[in-house]
Write a structure and sequence with these properties.
The structure is a single chain. By secondary structure, the chain is of the alpha+beta class. It has 2 domains: about 170 residues, Alpha Horseshoe (Serine Threonine Protein Phosphatase 5, Tetratricopeptide repeat); about 150 residues, Jelly Rolls (Sandwich), CATH 2.60.120.1060. The chain is built from 11 helices and 13 strands. A hairpin with a 2-residue loop joins strand 9 and strand 10. The longest helix has 21 residues.
Length: about 375
């Protein structure tokens, strides 16, 4: 019924009563709480650019979203991720803190804030580093408190406890508690955590025995839509230093650089150790469509080291990275539809393999 239509008693239409002022104020506050609204499709599009390693385009897309919604938690979170990728941890801290201010109970926000504080501590003076390390620890603990099943956050907390001195909260007993918690959530990652702890205690036989418990999958029998190549049996595995290793770096009594996989400041639970020159081969039998990974040198490698990463399918080159050094990484996203044999290769970038501690992080196949 509109104003031109009158009921049969011909009384004028009843006027709508205005909302009380306090209702309008709440509406304004709610609409401003995130600084505007963001189209979910636009977020997904920008996120897809990030996941494909098109970081420049992703940066522009998220900056555009930030201009219209400066308090949106997901926008700030991804701008923080991009800042970390550029080795700008101080900027990352600000973005992650903004994401947490808007959405304080998201575990992954606190986890990555902890990573940003940790990276900042590495660049800071000794005096400042202690304070940043404590903030890093507090962020990891909060991430685990919010989501006890967040295994990535637990793994970061484990590494902190294992590496940090007691004066800032580290300790082997705390690390052991986290290793147990990780093993309950994921037995394979738990084994790597315990091996890393044993190595830090120079119990190398225990570390090797723990890792020997892992049994790789037969790729031909995998039924799921995705699988990490570090969890399956390879048809060939060769590396230029030490021995092939899955989901951890190779080590022995003379060389044990951390055991866990950390590339470009990020901790990975899945990956292939691939000191150059290296070759891993897998029988795909044409059953998979996409291969993805993040590649780089392990954190702590000498700046002299470099590596070039190559993906080949049935002898044809599908991907070749630029030369990478420590504190850099590259996202790999390759079409492998119809490929029967997949090869992952690394080589030194300057005619030698000195300190070429290459890692294929999260090497994943998808149907």
């Amino acid at each position: 019924m509109n104003e031109r239509q009158q009921p049969c008693d011909a009384r004028p239409p009843r006027r709508l009563r205005p909302f009380p002022r306090w209702v309008g104020a709440i509406i304004v506050l709610l609409s401003a709480s995130f600084g505007g609204t963001v189209d979910p499709a636009a977020i997904n599009s920008a996120r897809a650019l990030y996941e494909k390693g098109r970081f420049g385009e992703a940066q522009s897309a998220f900056e555009k979203l930030f201009a219209s919604a400066p308090k949106d938690p997901e926008v700030n979170f991804h701008l923080g991720e991009l800042a970390l990728h550029r080795n700008e941890p101080e900027k990352a801290v600000a973005f992650f803190a903004s994401a947490i201010a808007a959405a304080p109970n998201v575990s992954r926000f606190h986890h990555r804030l902890g990573d940003a504080y940790g990276r900042s501590a590495q660049k800071a003076s000794v005096f400042s580093a202690f304070g940043l390390a404590r903030k890093c620890l507090a962020s990891y603990r909060r991430a685990v408190e919010l989501d006890p099943a967040n295994i990535d956050a637990r793994y970061s907390l484990f590494v902190f406890y294992r590496n940090a001195p007691g004066i800032i909260g580290g300790g082997s007993d705390k690390a052991a508690t986290e290793a147990d918690a990780i093993k309950k959530l994921d037995p394979d990652r738990g084994r790597v955590a315990w091996a890393a702890l044993y190595v830090s205690q120079e119990q190398y036989d225990h570390a090797l025995a723990t890792l020997a418990e892992f049994r790789p999958l037969d790729l031909a029998t995998v039924q799921g839509d995705s699988v990490y190549l570090s969890d399956v049996a390879w048809t060939d595995g060769k590396v230029g230093w030490g021995q092939p290793a899955r989901n951890h770096t190779w080590f022995d009594e003379k060389s044990h650089p951390g055991v866990v996989l950390i590339v470009h400041g990020r901790l990975y639970g899945k990956g292939l150790y691939a000191h150059s020159p290296s070759r891993y081969a897998f029988a795909l039998d044409g059953k998979w469509k996409v291969f993805t990974a993040t590649v780089g040198l392990r954190d702590g490698a000498h700046p002299q080291g470099s590596a070039i990463f190559t993906v080949r399918g049935d002898g044809r080159e599908l991907f070749r990275s630029a030369m990478l050094r420590v504190d850099a990484s590259k996202t790999v996203n390759v079409d492998v539809a119809g490929v029967k044999e997949l090869e992952l290769l690394t080589e030194g970038g300057e005619g030698h393999n000195h300190n070429s501690w290459a890692i294929w992080a999260e090497p994943r196949l998808r149907r």
